[in-house]
Amino acid sequence: MNVSSEAVTRAYLDRIDAVNPKLNAVVQLRHEAALAEARAADGVPKERRGALHGMPMTIKDSLDTAGIVTTGGTKGRASFVPSHDATVVKRLRAAGAIVMGKTNTPDLTLNYETSNLVYGRTNNPFDLERTSGGSSGGAAAIVAAGGSPLDIGSDTGGSIRLPAHFCGIAGLKPTAGRVPRTGHIIGYEGLSQFLTHIGPLARRVDDLALALGIIAGPDDADPYMAPLFLGDPEAVKVRGLRVAYFTKLPPLAPTAETVSAVESAVGALRRVGCPVREITIPDSQRIFDTYMTVLFGDGGAAVARALERWGSAESPLRKRIEGMRALSSGELTERHEWLDGWRSRMLGLIADVDAIVCPVNVAPAPPHETFDRATAAYTQMFNLTGWPSTVVRAGTSGEGLPIGVQVVAHPWREDVSLALAREIETALGPLPGPPGPAD
User: Fold this and answer.
1) Residues of the domain holding 51
2) Catalytic positions, please?
3) Confidence of residue 235 (pLDDT cuts 50, 70, 90)
């Protein structure tokens, strides 16, 4: 059955209109412009159509979109309209995607709760009193609610993976150096640049793979991109892949339901012929402090400069960085030396396995403004290593909240991560969607 791009786009726009008043996930919406682009797409000959031809989608508000207000969640950019697309947006549009609108993000993306002084707070479609996560919380909420089939987010410490987990969808943080950050509000400059990754969020793992194939690759601007081959998850033979897993990350311990979700995921892989064994992460108690050193070892000076640049005098980030002490050059050097040694030990840990399955966080989505940043060590550790991590839903809590797991692979092996995540998705799904505004 042939369905027009206009009809599909209109259906998603109608869905956004229905659910967004309660979610506050989409903060810029291009009703008429998106429909006009869809009508134009319907008239393009088949031989000229790209991989995403006529497909509507949304984009996180931290990525520049030419002609569309892009705030990055910070008040000083409340009326900022970029003249150019971010690299990933340019590539998506070239593949035929239609940008319906922008999704909410916290100030400069630097929070695990999606709320800002420009647009307010985003709510979780499974429970409006709970967080959708951050900083890609608007993206995850609208995808989970059926208002968008695909969004592109960013992840500096779990900002794709935590929202995907809290909202019950799939999300991918690619390998560091895989997807250009050109045109993202936190770019490729500075000592902490390696933490930030760009990646997709969708309801299905296959859609993550499709999007990654479009947005990956050097752009002659981001100096940390590597021109390496991107494998196809379809070509990965899952049977025989060696899988390690862990649940505890001392001093953190997940809920029993979270442990059960991880066990369900590894059980599904064991049943298709994957050898499975449990591992322990070395020096886990230092992960959070090391991450904070990398991000704020300058005493918050980089954040202060960004706020000054955009004129965001009222930003809540100013209070957060107030009183932070900048480490000395000797202290920073020592911390980074330790980090490099830990990265090496982590590579040794996975030398004889193909992937790791582990929690995304200690628990499902908490009530608004109660998230404990220290528990983000489960996601931060893979920003520190730079390894690819796919989040896929693997369970449901007694309160009806989704629980995801991370599937982490060796550097540059997104294909393995995605293939295993798809196997889990197939074995354990479908799982119940959100109630309330997403009915």
Assistant:
1) 5-438
2) 60, 135, 159
3) very high
Pairing between β-strand 150-155 and β-strand 56-60 as defined by DSSP bridges: parallel
Residue 438 scores a pLDDT above 70: no
Amino acid at 334: E
Cα(144)–Cα(329) distance, integer angstroms:
44
Using an 8 Å Cβ cutoff, are 249 and 360 in contact? no
Residue type, 207: D
Reported confidence tier of residue 439, pLDDT bands at 50, 70, 90: very low
- pLDDT tens readout for residues 90-106: 999 999 999 999 999 99
Distance, in Å, from the CA atom of 418 to the CA atom of 185, rounded to the nearest integer, reads: 27
Instruction: Please report which confidence band the pLDDT of residue 197 belongs to, taking 50, 70 and 90 as the band edges.
Output: very high
Instruction: Indicate the pLDDT class of residue 278, thresholds 50, 70 and 90.
Output: very high
One-letter amino acid of 227: P
Checking if the pLDDT of 326 tops 80, the result is: yes
SS (H, E, C) the chain: CCCCHHHHHHHHHHHHHHHHHHHCCEEEECHHHHHHHHHHHHCCCHHHCCCCCCCEEEEECCECECCECCCCCCHHHCCCCCCCCCHHHHHHHHCCCEEEEEECCCHHHCCCCCEECCCEECEECCEEEEECCCCCHHHHHHHHCCCCCEEEEEECCCCCHHHHHHHCCEEEECCCCCCCCCCECCCCCCCCHHHCEEEEEECCHHHHHHHHHHHCCCCCCCCCCCCCCCCCHHHCCCCCCCEEECCCECCECCCHHHHHHHHHHHHHHHHCCCCEEECCCCCHHHHHHHHHHHHHCCCCHHHHHHHHHHCCCCCHHHHHHCCCCCCCHHHHHHHHHHHHHHHHHHHHHCCCCCEEEEECCCCCCCECCCCCHHHHHHHHHHHHHCCCEEEEEEEECCCCCEEEEEEEECCCCHHHHHHHHHHHHHHHCCCCCCCHHHC
For residue range 9-34, list pLDDT tens digits in order.
Answer: 999 999 999 999 999 999 999 999 99
| Total number of domains in the chain | 1
Measured in whole angstroms, the distance separating CA 326 from the mean position of its chain's CA atoms is 29
Cβ neighbors of 342 (< 8 A, separation 6 or more) are: 282, 283, 286, 290, 384
CATH number at residue 254: 3.90.1300.10
